[in-house]
Design goal:
The protein has 212 residues and is an alpha+beta fold. It has 6 helices and 7 strands; from the N terminus they run ααβααββββαββα. The protein has a 4-stranded antiparallel sheet. Helix 1 runs antiparallel to helix 2. The longest helix is centred in the middle third of the chain and has 25 residues. It starts with 5 loop residues before the first helix and ends with a helix. The model has no long low-confidence stretch (mean pLDDT 87).
């Protein structure tokens, strides 16, 4: 299953926070030792979530009906997550430098820390969410499955589809991805499934149109 390796990558991303937290707590630095605890806890949370997603929360394949068969099966790619994580890492590195190796006021490392954590956390959120999401196109249905603690499954019969829409955010356009939205109509009771961070989104949308 092309879900990547959430346990491995989450451990790689979480360990620096754990190490930094331990170093601040036990090291003889000019900062309060308790400042290291939030970093260690945050790093531990990243590692634990990675192992949970890797070993527990894998989405299950849906049950086929009669002569129904899977035409295509896809997972969101991780390029958008990678871009956001990479935006956060230099800011977090700058925080370490400003806090421990310079004499600037604490307001500067605080700002770089908050902004860096925002991008880093958003990237992790996208990475975990994409790891837990699977899209299925069958000859009868469009299915989106997402599983964290419980299973969330959206299904839309293809004979009820009234529109297939493609969109790309700025980040997705830069990394060659797109979103595909499939909807049953324009009313308040319409059903819709949005497939995000898709490689070759136009090709996938064309596949859906062939069966509508």
């Amino acid at each position: 299953m092309a879900r990547g390796k959430p346990a491995v990558w989450s451990t790689i991303l979480g360990l620096p926070f754990i190490i930094a937290g331990i170093y601040v707590y036990f090291g003889e630095l000019d900062v309060p030792p308790l400042l290291g605890l939030p970093f260690a806890v945050f790093g531990g949370f990243i590692v634990i979530m990675g192992f949970y997603i890797h070993f527990v929360a894998a989405p299950e394949s849906p049950t086929m009906r009669g002569d129904e068969h899977i035409v295509d099966k896809r997972h969101p790619t991780q390029r958008v997550a990678l871009v956001k994580i990479c935006l956060g890492l230099p800011l977090l590195a700058a925080t370490v430098y400003l806090m421990f190796f310079s004499q600037v006021p604490y307001v500067y490392p605080t700002v770089t820390l908050l902004v860096g954590l925002y991008f880093f956390s958003k990237g992790l959120e996208v990475y975990w969410s994409n790891s837990l999401t699977t899209y299925y196109l069958t000859n009868r249905r469009m299915i989106r499955e997402y599983r964290l603690i419980s299973l969330i499954r959206q299904e839309l019969p293809l004979d009820k589809v009234r529109g297939v829409e493609e969109r790309k955010s700025v980040t997705e356009a830069l990394v060659g991805l797109g979103n595909v939205k499939v909807a049953s109509g324009g009313g308040g009771g319409s059903l819709k499934i949005v497939m995000r961070n898709m490689e070759q989104s136009t090709e996938f949308a064309d596949q859906i149109r062939e069966y509508v």
